[in-house]
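Handout, page 2. Input:
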Amino acid sequence: MLGEWISESGFSVKGHLVSLPPSFVKEARPEAKEVSELIYVRVGDVYAAKVSAEYHLVRPADRLHAYEGDMLFQSPTLRVADTQEVVRVLWGVAGHMVSELRRTFPSATDLTGR
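Output:
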């Protein structure tokens, strides 16, 4: 268990660390208002990425709860390449989970045992 967060769109999310095969990315059905897509990244790349606190614009249509106007949401943010070498931005709950993962397991070796 990595923690529990309320996302910028209003979902309660619990983070768990699991090991899944690459095929999971194609088979999973995430909540569309919360997850734009699933990606597969290498553990070493997650640890190599710099974490920064950044603001992200979230519009009312992107949130579960219909508050008025746009909202700036600050979260830990990382840029990491997926297995297709496309650079992805992890932020919001994903940024929090990766930051907590790196705090709990300070290195890729601590996480994987190799």
